[in-house]
Amino acid sequence: MRIAVSGTHRAGKSTLIDELSDLLPAYVTVEEPYHQLEEEGYDFAAPPSVEDFEAQLARSIADLDEGPRDVLFDRCPVDFIGYLLAHEDRDAFDLDAWLPRVRNALRTLDLIVLVGIEQPDRIALSSSEDEALRLSVDEKMKELLLEDPYALGVVVLEVEGSSRARAKQVLEHLGSL
């Protein structure tokens, strides 16, 4: 199966992927586009610009086009759409131009696991983190994936609880297929 783990920053995605990697040893893990681009020398603005998020969106689409069969993706194109729609310069992002490519890429996924911010929040944030952006992206991601206003047509499993509980929910979902 091809599974993407999605959500805002500091929600527990990477921790869940680590847990799932241990439980699904035959699966390949694909690092999130930010880290891939950074390793290649891409210079991100601080905070990231619309162009930076579009570069990550393009890489995420390419990753889905090239990935193996049993794979865990850290993020998918919907993550970057969430960030772009929450960005202060969101008017510079042309979602309609990207949607055909995003829909085609998402068709290659069997499941998107949505890791949202829980109440109370399980993740402690440093004072330097932009909590408003994190909450806005979480809201956008839930809207995009659970309400599906752009007819993305993806199967979504929203998980909650500890990383072990989240992994168990994913495994139970996979077992039910």
Automatic annotation (TrEMBL):
InterPro entries: NadR/Ttd14_AAA_dom, P-loop_NTPase
Domain of life: Bacteria
Domain NadR/Ttd14 AAA, chain residue ranges per copy: 2-162
Cited Pfam families: AAA_28 (PF13521)
Protein's recorded name: NadR/Ttd14 AAA domain-containing protein
